[in-house]
Amino acid sequence: MTNRIVQLALAAMLAATATTALARGDDVRIGVNTPYVPMEYQKPDGSLTGFDIDLGNALCKQAELNCTWVEQSWNGIIPGLQARRFDAIMSSMTINDERRKQLLFSEPYIVPPSAWFVPADSPISQPTADQLQGKTVGVQRGTVQDDYVSETLGDVVDVKRYANADDVVLDLDVGRLDAAFFDYPTGLSALLEPEDKDYKSIGDKMTEPKKYFGEGFGIAFRKRDQALADRFNAALAELKDNGTYDRIYAKYFGDEQTATD
């Protein structure tokens, strides 16, 4: 065996060892951006809760991993993963081709549509270019909803981008926005529940085109951490088989078909 071949073999062994060591470690840090009701948010005592948090904790228990959550702003969440501030992202992140260029994703764990929301007395009945002409639309910065509105309606509407969904709702409440575009579970929770009659959802719930709306929410990992992704995928399949996934889904969404798994 030549020296070159030996060097390549050693490099491959080291790479495999590093990946396996991370996958088999007991401690895994998961990055999350809050608030994002009902997916991930804080209780009054400051502890984290929500669909992603409960499912993430169940996945970690099933996979026999000791997980901790690391809060991170949305704009910094992918750089935080690449800088090793945490080992995974579980924060309602849509799987799409653009993100696949730099991230490895788990299987989708939920597939929520996006939807338009307007005040109940709004004259906007459909989210068409004609009806939205000259209107102001709020989105969370850097989301698939931001991409869709900016690229398909950016020359028709005034797009206002916010750090989080709560800030969008605040400006909608005081009349600075004519409409908001959210993933449906977030809009449902923030604007329509429990009996808020001030807002309504208009138009069809959207999952196409996949260029914008992707394949659903997935857990993101660094590209090299395939073994860790495999471990989460196996745990997700087991939670679906034993009924845990359905119980967590029902806790946050009840019978509402806000998404498909």
Shape: globular
Estimated structural class = alpha/beta
Quaternary state of the chains: single chain
Annotation field: number of helices? 11
The strand line-up of the biggest sheet is 4-1-5-12-6
| Helical content class | 40-55%
Instruction: Give the uncertain stretches in residue-range form.
Output: 1-23
How is the main sheet built?
5 strands, mixed
Rg value? 20 Å
Beta-strand content bin: 15-25%
The overall strand count is 12
N- and C-termini, Cα separation:
50 Å
Mean model confidence by pLDDT? 88
Q: What pattern of helices and strands is seen along the backbone? A: HEEEHEHEHEEHEHEHEHEHEHH
Secondary structure elements and pairings:
Elements: H1 3-24, E1 27-32, E2 41-42, E3 48-49, H2 51-62, E4 66-71, H3 77-82, E5 88-89, H4 97-100, E6 104-105, E7 114-119, H5 129-132, E8 136-140, H6 144-153, E9 158-162, H7 165-173, E10 179-183, H8 184-192, E11 199-206, H9 210-213, E12 220-221, H10 226-242, H11 244-253
Parallel strand pairs: 1-4, 1-5, 8-9, 8-10
Antiparallel strand pairs: 2-3, 5-12, 6-12, 7-10, 7-11
Structure notes:
Helix 1 runs parallel beside helix 10. Helix 6 links the parallel strand 8 and strand 9. The termini are far apart. The chain has 11 helices and 12 strands. It is globular. With 261 residues, it is of the alpha/beta class. The longest helix has 22 residues. The N terminus is likely disordered. The strands form 3 sheets. The chain has a 5-stranded mixed sheet with strand order 4-1-5-12-6. It is 41% helix and 20% strand.
Task: Please outline what is shown here.
The chain is an alpha/beta fold. The protein has eleven helices and twelve strands.
